[in-house]
Amino acid sequence: MTEILIWSPEMSVGNADIDFQHKKILDAANMVRGLSGVEDRDIVLAALDQVVEYTLAHFAFEEEVLIECGFSGFADHKAQHDAIRESVHTVANNRELVTAEMLDDVMSRLVRHILCVDQDYAGQVGAC
Fold first, then answer.
1. For residues 94 and 45, is the Cβ–Cβ distance under 8 A?
2. In this structure, is residue 36 part of a structural domain?
3. In angstroms, rounded to a whole number, what is the distance separating the alpha carbons of residues 111 and 52?
4. What pTM was computed for the model?
5. pLDDT tens digits, residue range 37-85?
6. What is the extent of the structural domain holding 30?
7. For position 26, which CATH number holds?
8. What is the pLDDT of residues 12-47, one digit of tens each?
9. How many domains does the chain have?
10. Other CB atoms within 10 Å distance of the CB of residue 44
């Protein structure tokens, strides 16, 4: 991720709760992006905790909404969530080795997912 991300209406999926969570994830991504790599270990670990918390809570909520709305692509969408979850867990389970660059890689995957893949359900969750 090489630039600061600013929320725009084109990023909306039509569900205020999910959009709010996506904005929070973009904020976290920007925070991670702002790490230079020479920060105190506590700062990197605090960023890690925030990334893990936001990602896991968001995916659980989003999946609930997609099921409730009958999103036809749910299985594929969940499989993509599971792949990102695995990356998050791998980084979280290796706290002693985590770097700002590793967090940035995870956040980049998550942001790409939000900006591209989540748009697949935008029409359905807004009407649900």
1. no
2. yes
3. 14
4. 0.86
5. 666 778 878 888 888 898 999 999 999 999 999 999 999 999 999 999 9
6. 15-127
7. 1.20.120.50
8. 999 999 999 999 988 888 887 777 666 677 887 888
9. 1
10. 20
